[in-house]
Amino acid sequence: MAEHRGRLIIIGGREDQRGGARILSRVVELAGGGRGAIGIIPTASEADAQALRRYQDVFTRLGAENVRGIDLTDRRGADSPGAVSALDDLTAVFFTGGDQLRITSAIGGTAFHHRLLERHRDGLVVAGTSAGASMMTETMIVGGDAEEAPTLNTVHLAQGMGFWPDAVVDQHFSQRGRIGRLLAALAQNPEVLGVGIDENTAIEVDFHEKSFSVVGERTVMVLDGREITETNASESRPGEALAVAGVRLHVLPDGYRFDWVARRPERLKDPAAAGERGVRLS
């Protein structure tokens, strides 16, 4: 598989859009500032026109001079030559929030999707918030009983857009109590890295460095299942409690990075500015 070289900005939802808008400012910066071109894909939103206008206004205020929408509501449109060519001069794309299944059902596997993956491998920045965060991975979370103890039906999984093959992402994480469904996803896919991102918080994924860094107001929870010693996922029935032993947990705030090859967090800022806490669940 060719290495993906474009950065990913994966946002846990409800990012600041009116103040300093630090996370969205980083999207503009990576896109090339005023010289860049950002395409907004509001497919996930029921009110797609409203979502498009809102992000056009925000990115323009933050200094992006070329911001335009890519209107993809069905697979026929996503297979059209016009949709594919809309990616040619972009330096970044941004997926809005809503329902991640709207994205994958309208775009997944289409000519637009294949071209988007190619452009990403060539360096295109791909950013997304909320539903636009969940769809980033090869296997994505589409729903589940967030506040229930982990069971097989605590989480519902589907095929994602595949920008980050070796992870599964959940968003609005602490605010909606979603650790149970991320654990359930990890029990069924222990080789992937589980990443739960809080609101107004994001990770910047760097495939060259094989790491991601945290930026924003709150925290990112990383669940590492590589050393899982016991799980009953294969024989448990829907509604029956899952056993998951040996998961390693890290809670990372702004100023930390995580190396997903070494599976090790690293503090990048002064200790007074950030703190990392790691424990093992067993």
Polypeptide structure, described:
This protein is α/β, with parallel strands linked by helices. The protein folds into two domains: 1-132, Class I glutamine amidotransferase (GATase) domain (Rossmann fold, 3-Layer(aba) Sandwich), CATH 3.40.50; 136-200 and 216-282, Class I glutamine amidotransferase (GATase) domain (Rossmann fold). The chain is built from eight helices and 18 strands. The radius of gyration is 18 Å and the shape is globular. Residues 271-282 have low confidence and may be disordered.
Q: Could you provide a short overview of the structure?
A:
With 282 residues, this protein is α/β, with parallel strands linked by helices. The protein folds into two domains: 1-132, Class I glutamine amidotransferase (GATase) domain (Rossmann fold, 3-Layer(aba) Sandwich), CATH 3.40.50; 136-200 and 216-282, 3-Layer(aba) Sandwich (Rossmann fold), CATH 3.40.50. It has helices at 22-31, 48-61, 75-78, 81-85, 100-107, 111-121, 131-134, 179-188; strands at 8-11, 37-41, 66-69, 92-95, 125-129, 139-143, 156-159, 167-171, 193-197, 201-206, 211-216, 219-224, 230-231, 244-245, 247-253, 256-259, 264-267, 277-281.
Summary keywords:
single chain, 282 residues, alpha/beta, Rossmann fold, five-stranded mixed sheet, 18 strands, disordered C terminus
Strand order in the largest sheet: 3-2-4-5-1-10-11-16-17
Note the beta-strand portion: 25-35%
What is the quaternary state of this protein? single chain
Radius of gyration, taken over Cα atoms and rounded to an integer in Å: 18 Å
Distance between the first and last residues' Cα:
34 Å
